[in-house]
Amino acid sequence: MVKVRAARAAEAGALTALVMRSKAHWGYDAGFLAACAPELLIRPGEVTARRIVVAENRRGTVLGVASLEGAPPRAALGLLFVEPSAIGQGVGRLLYRDVLRRAVELGVRRLVIDADPHAAGFYRAMGAVAVAGPANASDAAAPAASAASALVRFEAAPVPLADWARAWTGGGRAVHVGNVAEFNAQFADASLDRGQSAAHHYACLAAFYSPDPAALVLPRPVPKGWTELVCRQLGWSEVEVYDGLAEGDPGLCEAVRARPALAALLTGAGLPLVPWGRTRPFGRLAGRPWRAGELRYESKSAAHALFGRILADGGHPGIVLPAQWRAAGRWAAGRLLAARTRAGESTVLKSEHGVGGSGTTVVTPDRVRAAGGARAVLRRLPRGPLLVEEYVAGPAEGEGPRDLTYDGFVDGTGRVYEVGGAVMDVTDGCYRGATVGPGVVPAWAEKPLASFGAAVGRELAESGYRGWFDVDFVADGAGRLAPTETNLRLTGPSVAFMVAARLDALRGAGHLVRIADRVELGARLPEAQLDELCAALARGCAELGAVFVPAIPTGAFEPAPWLGVLVAAHDRGTLDTAEALVRAGARAVGAEFSAFSRSAPSSR
How far apart are CA 392 and CA 476, in angstroms? Predict the structure, then answer.
């Protein structure tokens, strides 16, 4: 265990020696080191003024030193040096994150870093952004440097955890309950996965239900290496994992309650319990009352009616509501679909509930004719109640995003918090992922998205709902948004928002985060090879200045293997490059392992 503490004046000489050893590690000659010595000197009387801290191990051995110099709103990382024998062990990362944390507390909003060229990769991996112009000895925020022209300038923007993120869990750690299958099962919708295998995979997203988990409660076992990598990437201290609790059925909360000691441990720690979504069993576990009708707006027809009531009051000129009809039966749905087909209209067929686009089908006239008529189309859909909805034609390809979402939550007092907007990746009605962050939502959509989303939040609060919600939209070709459904639970975009909030606080403001539900693997990987793949992808993204976080590891063990992933960066170009690297790396490693498996001698 390595910890950070304030340096002592009496250590100044020893710390200076450490700094010089660290500088010499990169192979500089004696003349260069002698020229650098005055600027790297730590004087006893400066230790407090320069806000110098050290990292030390359990034995009290000092492994590194860092300083935060200057005054808000702009300051400098004056020193960050690690004992050569400890380089690569996470000491520099620990010290850098401590500097950012202290900068936030001081009110610093711009941190200048004049880095040795050999350390440039480290600062890039930590989220600092390279800026134009060499280090300048006359810069009041940076220490004087005789070799300034050899330094590489970076900047970071320290920020506290977002206000909404602090409000979500009270600013502290939380227990995350991965009850995805349990949430889905309460609707008994034929469009949902009866075996709940997909839901159990998505329960892995419990790692990201808040910016700082204390414990994860999961229905199926997860790889130990996965949780270790996620903790390292997101700077979490130890997270307790309770997995394999409900492998055969969706009843995770009941499985926890059937283990009284575990239930007492999770509920007695004084930490908030955060589920994927509200259920009656979760209410019993958490000791929260279950309100009848609390989730009624999970119904797509109920949500449509809610949207209509909001729009009837006016005040949302950028929003248009597609017509929707609830079919009394399959014959009625067939007649509606046939009539729309004859009129040349495309149609959206929806079940009352569904997740990730399950139960939603876009049907064009050509598709109806190719299938042999409206009834033939309907025979291929899940049984159960069916909604027939007007199709909203979107913008021309390349003219802007088609699918957007608004995220927010209602706290225990009924106050509505805005989290933000995201752009979703939706293919043929199926959700594939989402991107959140500054500038992601186009400017024309920002105001109507936020205004209507907030209005929905107020209605949900008035109805008694408490918890996370989102409102999904499609953009039409005229620059308007059409709301399509509400989700009264956490979602893929909500996970991206949580990670963005954590990374902003950990690495500096302005992260774009993309969650991709399924990154295909070329072969099923044993757990050790999956760990190797994820570690390699994390290193590759770090070299770009991006962050890779495996979000759903258990899909890698399916017959058709896949990973859910998160990638983050400070700009769109780096984000796209990182995603491409991850997808290519996943395919390549899978193909290599598959080829090795085919060529290996049989054990028979």
Answer: 6
